[in-house]
Amino acid sequence: MAAGGAAGPAAVCGPERPGAGGLALLGLAPSAPSCPHGPALLFVKTGQGGGGGGRRFYACSACRDRKDCNFFQWEDEKVSETRLAAREEYNRNHQPPFTHRQNVERYKSFVLLPLSERRFCQECQQLLLPAEWEKHSNHQFLCDISTAQLKSPSQLLYPLENKKTNAQYLFTDRSCQFLLDLIIDLGFRRVLSVGTPRLHEMIQSKASQEEDFRVRSLLLDIDFRYSQFYTEDEFCHYNMFNHYFFGGEAACETCRKFLYQDKGERVIMVTDPPFGGLVEALASSFKKLMAMWKETEKEGHKNQEMPMFWIFPYFFESRILEFFPSFNMMDYQVDYDNHALYKHGKTGRRQSPVRIFTNLTPSMIVLPVEEGYRFCAVCQRYVSSGNQHCEICNSCTSKDGRRWKHCVLCKKCVKPSWFHCNNCNCCTLQNHACEKTDAGCFVCGKAGHKRSSCPSLSRTRTACQADEKQRQKTVKRVKMGICKRSAMKRAIFSRKKLKNNKKKKM
Fold first, then answer.
1. Which of 337, 349, 281, 286 is nearest to 313 (CA)?
2. How many Cα atoms sit within 13 Å of 410 on the Cβ side?
3. What residue ranges in 66-184 does DSSP mark as E strands?
C-alpha cells in the first residue's frame, strides 16, 4: 500500500463495526476539534455486541495509536480558552518547516546547483541548499543528487511504516507498469493518485520523457515530503481518512479542476490506503471525491460513478462491497517492493493478498496471461489459473489464487485447508477451538456468554473488591495504632531519660 494517505473518516456513514465491545466510529462532526492531522473523528464506546450508548469522544483521524498522536477530547467536555490557545500553538508547531510554495521555490534553486552541490539530508528527509549545510553538518546526507533521483522521490525518501496511519508499501515496477498500461488501454488520460506516489511518479517521469505521452496525474497524499519535488498542480497534501486538504480551499480547487474532464479526457481514481485504516472512514472520503467529480460533470452523467481502482487485501471484500455495492474484486495480485510477504509468484498463504476492487465492468480488466491468468467465459472476467469455476456456485469462487472446494452443508466454496465442523456448523481449520460447546461459560456453566463477561464473575469481582477495601481499611487502622503506640513509647522513653539526666546532675 503505497499509502501515503492518512487515516480517519469523513462524513457520517454509520458506525464501524467494533465486534464484541469496543469503539464505534460515528464520523466527522461539523464542529469537530482539530489536531495536527486535521479535524478529529467522533467515536463512541460500545458494549457487548456492538451496542452504543457509551460516552462519545474525539480522537485523531490519522493515528489510531495514541503514541503517534495523543489528541483526545470528550464530546461534551468544556475546553478552556487557555487550553484552546495551547492546542492551536501545538498544531502550528507540528506543521512542516516549509510551505508547499516555499518548497517549490527551493526546488527551483536546487536544480540550478551543480551536481557537486546537490545534497539531501537523510535524517531530516530534506533537500539542502548550500546555506543550510552547516546546520546539518552532524547529519548523514547523500551527495551528487542526480536529475533521475529527483524524478524518483519514492526511492530517495525513507518509506513511512506505520501500518495504521501512513504505511508506504510501494508498488513494484511490475504492478505499477501493469496499472499504468491498464489505465491507458481503458482510455483514461487523467489519474487521481490517492496515496499511490510510485504510480504518480511513473506517470510524471514518462510525461517528461515522451512527447506523445498524454496521461496526467495529481497526487493526494499525507506525506508532505513530496511537496519538495512536485508543484501545487501536481501534489496536494491530503488526509484520505477525513477528506482534509491541508492547503485549504486553494488545494481543494486544484483537485476540482483536475477532475473536470476537459476535452473528453476521462478520469480514474487509483487509491492504495494503509491496510490498518478504518474502511468506513476511507469509503466516506472516496465518496466525497466522487461527489466532487460529479459536480464537474456538465454532460448528463449524474447517474454514473467516478471510475475507481481501490487496492486492498481480499479479506476486506465484504466491507468494501458494503459501501460500494457496484464494485467487483479482480484476481490480479498486487505486490510491493518493501514488503517481506506481499510478493508476486509465491504460492499458498505466502502470496500477496492484495487485489484491485473496481466499479468498471470486470470483462474490461484484461489480466496478463503470461503471469498465470485466464479468461472465464462463464464469469466473463479474467481469473487466476488456480481459480476453477464451481458449477454449483456458478462462479470462480477462489479469493487467494488457490483452488477452493465446495461444501454442500455450507452451500458455498471454502478454502482447501478447511473442513466442515458439525459442532460449529461451518467450515473452518481442522485444529480449531470450537466456539459452540455444551460446556458454556467456564465460571457459571451457562451458555450465551464467555467467561470474561460472566455476571457471576462480575459479582465475584465486586465482592472481592469490597473485601479488599475492608482489608485495606483494617491494615490502615492497625498501622495507625502501631504508629501511635510507637510514638507514645518514644515520648515515655524521652521523659524517663530526661529525669535520669537531672538526677545525675544533682
1. 349
2. 18
3. 72-74, 119-121, 126-128, 141-143
- Report pLDDT for 503: 59
Longest dimension (CA), the chain: 123
Gyration radius from the chain CA atoms = 31
Q: Tell me the sheet residues that pair with 168.
A: 2
Strand partners, 38: 35
Distance CA 191, CA 299 (A): 20
Beta-bridged to residue 381, according to DSSP, are 376
Q: So what's the pLDDT on residue 64?
A: 73
SS3 372: coil
Q: Which residues fall within 8 angstroms of residue 336, CB to CB, at 6 or more apart?
A: 1, 2, 169, 170, 171, 172, 175, 342, 343, 352, 354
Provide the pLDDT for residue 275: 85
CB-based contacts of 291, cutoff 8 Å, min separation 6: none
321 contacts: CB under 8 Å, gap ≥ 6: 327
Is the sign of the CA dihedral 33, 37, 40, 43 positive or negative? Answer: negative
Distance between CA atoms of residues 493 and 131, nearest Å: 78
pLDDT digits (tens, 9 = 90+) for 130-169: 999 999 999 999 999 999 999 999 989 987 654 444 456 7
Question: Which among 322, 376, 331, 374 has a CA at the least distance from the CA of 354?
Answer: 331
How far apart are alpha carbons 134 and 155 in whole angstroms?
A: 25
Question: Which residues make Cβ contacts (< 8 Å) with residue 245, sequence separation at least 6?
Answer: 236, 237, 238, 251, 252, 255
- Rounded to whole angstroms, the Cα distance separating 39 from 59 reads 9
- Give the residue carrying C-alpha cell 507540528: 94
Residue-wise pLDDT tens digits, 418-461:
999 988 889 999 888 886 544 455 445 555 555 555 555 445 44
- List, edge to edge, every strand of the sheet that includes 56-59: 22-27, 41-46, 56-59, 72-74
In DSSP notation, 28-83 reads --TT--EETTEEPEEEEEE-GGG---S-EEEE-SS-SSTTT---EEETT----HHH
CA end-to-end distance (rounded Å), the chain = 95
Sign of the dihedral through C-alpha 21, 26, 28, 31? negative
Question: Which residues of the chain carry a pLDDT beneath 70?
Answer: 1-22, 47-53, 160-168, 297-303, 338-350, 435-506
pTM beyond cutoff 0.70? yes
Cα(331)–Cα(356) distance, integer angstroms: 7
* 467 close to 476: Cβ distance less than 8 angstroms: no
